[in-house]
Write a structure and sequence with these properties.
Low-confidence stretches: none
Number of helices: 2
Distance between the termini: 30 Å
Oligomer: single chain
Structural class: mainly alpha
Shape: elongated
Mean pLDDT: 81
Number of strands: 0
């Protein structure tokens, strides 16, 4: 396992968990402000999923001369 895979996995999971926390904590605490918690929460979850499944970052391109 490369260090890039480990850091990508950790940052993706942290982003997804933080996004879910934002969505559910605000919804449970202040049900009237649910829209203001869904927008950044969904944004963070989507970014986290993208980071988590992006495998093109691990590929090393050959130097063309």
């Amino acid at each position: 396992m490369s260090m890039n895979f480990i850091s990508r996995t950790i940052s993706g999971i942290v982003s997804i968990v933080f996004g879910l926390y934002i969505m559910f904590a605000v919804i449970l605490d202040k049900p009237d402000d649910w829209l203001w918690s869904l927008v950044p929460g969904i944004f963070l979850v989507v970014i986290g999923i993208f980071i988590f499944i992006n495998k093109k970052e691990d590929d090393i391109e050959k130097i063309k001369k």
